[in-house]
Amino acid sequence: MPRQALSDVQLAETRARIVAEAGRIVLREGYAALSMRSLAKAVGLTAGALYRYFPTKQHVLMGYCADALDALTEQLRRIETEEGEPLRAIERMMVEYGTFALSDPDRFRVVFLDPEVGRIELTDPKTLDGYRVLQAAVDRAQGAGLFRPMAADDIARLLIASVHGIVVMAVTIREIDFSDAGTLVAAAARTMLRGLAVAPDEVGR
Fold it and tell me: Taking the model in full, what pTM does it have?
């Protein structure tokens, strides 16, 4: 009797389960421990069935990274849509990035810090969509005269680096107390924006 075809929802659910389990294996045992055979066993599939979803383990990890970054991009776009004040939108985006990272430090380590995963080329142009949302917000703020004279790309890089640095330290350096890293992220966002923005009475000059 032929196997019943899976629905789109079932395919998506299985795919999500596979990439999540791959992330757990890499975190727990390292990239070298991840194989299609071990992954198939962990999710209750045969190796042959697993290849229906991903042709190689590199594709599995690319899927894991892309899914995590897509979730972040969706949140940043929501902020972009609902927040009318440009600098406040940028501040919220920076805090959202920190929240994204700190809410699941294991996922953050796999996506951004694992040296093997970092060597996988994410060819999908959507990978940087979240960063482009921030760049667009900076461009709008600069067009409105809210930032001091400086290349918009440099402003965006400075902003995201300030938050990213805090998160990396919080999830990797146990000797420093980062128990309230979320508050520190918010403070960094406000401080960076104050330093880069023109004074309120200078806007429009």
Answer: 0.81
Distance from CA of residue 16 to its chain's centroid?
A: 16
Map tokens 């294996």 to a residue.
25
Q: Check residue 33 and report its DSSP letter.
A: G
The 10s digit of each residue's pLDDT in 36-69 is 999 999 999 998 899 989 988 888 888 888 888 8
Q: How many domains does the chain have?
A: 2
Residue 51 within any structural domain of the chain:
yes
With respect to residue 136, please indicate whether it lies within any of the assigned structural domains.
yes
**Does residue 105 sit in the same domain as residue 7?**
no
Helix/strand/coil for 147:
strand
Question: Are 156 and 131 a contacting pair, CB within 8 Å?
Answer: yes
Surface-to-core class of residue 108, CB atoms within 10 Å of its CB (0-12 exposed, 13-18 middle, 19+ buried): buried
Residue 1 — very low, low, confident or very high, per pLDDT cuts 50/70/90?
A: very low
The answer on 137 and 83 residing in a single domain is: yes
